[in-house]
Amino acid sequence: MLLCGYSIILKNLSATLLSSSSTLSLLPTVTTLSLPLLALLASPEFINNVQEQNKKVSVALLEKAKSICAGQGVNAETISEVGDAKQAICDAVQKLNITLLILGDRGIGKIKRAFLGSVSNHCVHNAKCPVLVVKKSN
């Protein structure tokens, strides 16, 4: 679960974050519907409803993550972007002058990664700052 990842990261980095004036930026991305067949078959109203629901889920996730941060004494700001996660994250790194990007690894497997691509792998190679990838604990 993503929020579990935030807790693990905060436990390991809270001393560093508390001893500096850094702010933790939380950025989930809302992926736009990009399946051409779905775009042809679905009405614009349906696509808008799905995207609006995704935004609501992102806001709820951000609020929960922010409360976890506050519980650890870490100042956090929330940002929500719409689009391809790989590009949105790398763009936000540059726009916000992020000094360390921390990502979770979904563990999607080699076959899915070959077709879908890996967000963490893309960011490791393209983000303009150091990247820490946190693997899911077993």
Q: How many individual helices?
A: 6
Mean pLDDT: 74
Low-confidence stretches: 1-5
Strand content: 5-15%
Largest sheet: 2 strands, parallel
Rounded radius of gyration (Å): 16 Å
Q: What global shape is seen? A: globular
> Helix share of residues?
55-70%
Please, how many domains? 2
Strand order of the largest sheet: 1-3
> Number of DSSP strands?
6
Would you list the SSEs in sequence order as H and E?
HEEHHEEHEHHE
Structural class: alpha/beta
Domain UspA: 51-135
Protein name: UspA domain-containing protein
Organism: Vitis rotundifolia (Muscadine grape)
Task: Give an overview in words.
The structure is a single chain. Helices cover 56% and strands 14% of the residues. The protein is of the alpha/beta class and 138 residues long. The chain has 2 domains: 83 residues, no CATH class; 55 residues, 3-Layer(aba) Sandwich (Rossmann fold), CATH 3.40.50.620. The N and C termini lie close together (12 Å). 15% of the residues are buried.
Structure at a glance:
This protein has 138 residues and is of the alpha/beta class. It has two domains: 83 residues, no CATH class; 55 residues, HUPs (Rossmann fold), CATH 3.40.50.620. The protein contains six helices and six strands.
Salient structural properties:
single chain, 14% strand, 138 residues, 2 domains, Universal_stress_UspA, disordered N terminus, Rossmann fold, two-stranded parallel sheet
